[in-house]
Amino acid sequence: MLDFRIDTFLVVCRYMNFTKAASELHITQPAVSHHIHYLEKEYGVRLFEYNGKKVNLTEAGKVFLSAAITMKDDEQHLKKIMEQQSGKGGRLVFGATMTIGEYVMPEALTRFLHVYPGTAVQMVVGDTRELLGKLNDGEIEFALVEGFFQKKEYDFLVFATEPFAAVCAPDYKFCRKTVKVEDLLGERLFIREPGSGTRYVFERYLEGKNLLLHDFPNLMEISNIGAMKQMVAKGQGITFLYEAAVKEELDRGVLKRIELEDFQLTHDFTFIWRKGSIYKSYYKEMFDILHGTKAENDIFHPSFCESRE
Known about the structure:
Blueprint: H1 4-15, H2 18-25, H3 29-43, E1 48-51, E2 54-57, H4 59-88, E3 91-96, H5 98-103, H6 105-115, E4 120-125, H7 128-136, E5 143-145, E6 154-168, E7 189-191, H8 197-207, E8 219-221, H9 225-233, E9 238-242, H10 243-252, E10 256-257, E11 266-274, H11 280-291
Parallel strand pairs: 3-4, 3-5, 7-8, 7-9
Antiparallel strand pairs: 1-2, 5-11, 6-9, 6-10, 6-11
């Protein structure tokens, strides 16, 4: 069981305020201070520095925070294993960003259920920032993301390197001859909402060409990929999406690729978990199954309910 004083430390870090931490934990502020002083004495470092009423982590405190988050996450995983040992059955809870969840995970989860058919699965869909928060809070075991993350905080494996595609309706009439991305600035552009990994990657690409998203004066922000594709298929504009998200429509001829000589954009879909986890081999096994890296008979899994060492 994780030391309750580490829980106190994590709550203080959430608010950077001892009074708010005491209120959430239903203990007194002196008790919070006592817990922190105990940890500082135990590890021989100062965890916080104080500037008037402002509280900040020391460098040692930042290192301790990263380790404490991983310990908390591992404890949640251990509880799941113990539940399974008690006969409650296998359970997998993970996160995925929208494009990955909708267009990549169905096939991956089919592989997983072939190996562990009796497992209850919960896939939480959100943007990368939301999923990192849930991973840090122990609400999910791992995540598959398309956005950026602090590599010093997470272990990771590249799940896929996915190309982008510029697409429009088969009979779409362009405002001008299209050879380069900047030739499309006069078109209506359908784009994902702020916070979307797809949007963020595309924006960074435009910046590399000294362009901004708002150089497209006719923008339509839509958070639903299916709705975007339907609007584009009806000839209402163009969009840039991961090829995985438009592959079916391209194959059926509902959408067509806009051929551009200066548009070669790819980005990694990444499988991540907390750095330093004692369950590293478990996460690698989950990656292998979902990714299809190994055949079922090459994976050692005596039981999904058993602990990995």
